[in-house]
Protein 1
Amino acid sequence: MKVTTRRLSPDDSDAYRRIRLEALGKAPDAYGSSYSVEAALPLAAFRERLANTVVLAAYRGDEIVGMAGLMRGAGMKERHKARLWGMYVREDSRRLGIGKALVSALIDEAPQGIEQISLAVVEENRSAISLYEALGFRAYGVERHALKVRDRYFDEALMVRFLAPSPLGS
């Protein structure tokens, strides 16, 4: 079945809320937020998020099977940067190229003036790191104990992809 991606609008807030909560519930150690926090948010909060950030969904037919977001830096000195966040592909849709399609589409959707996209990914998630590397992201550091779920810490690999030539040469 063909996979398509499209940007979600505030009108998609109910479907977005469902897949976001699914992601937080199935992979609690992969995200900075938690299921309990976001499940308590009103639908208006999801609508506002979709109005203020780029969130793409991957579809197989009419069903959302994945999502990823891109948030531009807020300050004048950070407007050239964006952060990839909230990446998720349903288990039954993994290894079908959906993650690659989502990240590639996000790169294509990056607003004018974005020169670099950064992300943080739990170091144990080797398949995600491999995907990001295949799409041109490079690790530049590790944040130790970046996330704490119950009494367990998770380190995150910090990665970046330069869209414009980097002054550092890579």
Protein 2
Amino acid sequence: MRRTFFGLLLVVSFCVPAAWPRDKEVPPPLFIAPEFRFSQVDTICVAPAIDLRADKTEPLNLSGPGERHGLILPDHIESVDTRLARDFKKIGYQTVSCSPVNATLGDLKIPTDTWLGKLDFGESRWLFILAVEDVSAEYKRFWPQQGSVGGYAVVSGYLFQRQATGVRLVWRDRVVGRSRGELMGRKRTVKLAESDFAIGEGAICLLRKFEMRPQNKRIPSMWCVWDENKTETFDATCNVVWTALNDILKNSGKYDVIGIADSDMMAIYAIGGAGDRAEHSIDHVVLKSKENSCVMRITETAHITLRNDVGNLNKLVRASLSK
């Protein structure tokens, strides 16, 4: 009883949807096949989530019951796999189980015919894979302040279609999930819980970009939201803008780079320079070519207390290009 009571506690603010930011525009995915329509999807085989972190020192709870903890949450932290299948059903997609996937990020982003041929779709024509790319969990020895950030997770999602002629990738995206819990307890248990919440929200952010069924159905307001989604168009090629953007993110001292993907022209970064990323606002920026110009989209990962000036990076890039 003593361990249960002093295990892991969650303050009421985490459970109150009214405290969350209002829903905003949903950013587009990194890739969607031109002829693909969500109406084509019947059942989806949801593969077990895979851990593709460069550093796997900290444990994760992707499947099966998690750590036992305190009074407010259930007896065990619910796994990412369990929540993902349930949340698919919430937006109108029936799921079936399938075998684990053996993959690298390269396999997922640019799949070869050999690798595609090894995928198990179960009894479905559609396969969804969730990959965890990076996780950072915060631990505070004493009771955290209300509204503090517990951590973040970078996750990516991939939807594959099985056809008579073979298997193809039809949808892909990468997002940042944040933990909004103010947790207290044993260090190992708290960090596992914060990581799990962040990964779970990242998965929800991916599902927010799926078509709802029926189309007028809305995901509950407590699901993933983006506080700001701003675009800026530059009269330059994206290669030129990408070079300027990289220089600013890496050398200005204003940002802490979490991940750079040259092939996607996508960067994930924390506001405020080097330091405790879990306590900083974390945004991501994507470049897309449009005719003879380049469109830069900055997406702020919303949080109750943290806010960004999303226009600041636009100004810095424009100033760099004008030199």
Protein 3
Amino acid sequence: MRALALIASAFVLAAAPALAADDIMAGFYGNTVISTGGALESHTHYRADHTFDVTATAMGQNFNDKGTWTIDDKGQLCRIYEAPPPGMPNPLCIPAASHKVGESWTVTVNGSTRLMTLKPGIQ
């Protein structure tokens, strides 16, 4: 019986990396997405429980919010804000792709292109 339990545990542990590999957002957890462009800089933190928080600075004003995120049926990352920023759709959906710490990419939101960088840790 003990051998059976050990074998079952081994299968569960072996499956864990495969599950993480299937999670397009896995590289984001515990790290910070810094978005820059125009007069706005934001820092977003995604969590595996499908929550996020964001702090932003624009034209000398600070903005803090939080909410939930999901990957929709089109493969987009959709954020639902508790108090959406003025002029932004809620939910806000952008193309989703996995990224590693140190990578940068661009995203276009409401006609504005923003540079996104995944930085290590919570910043």
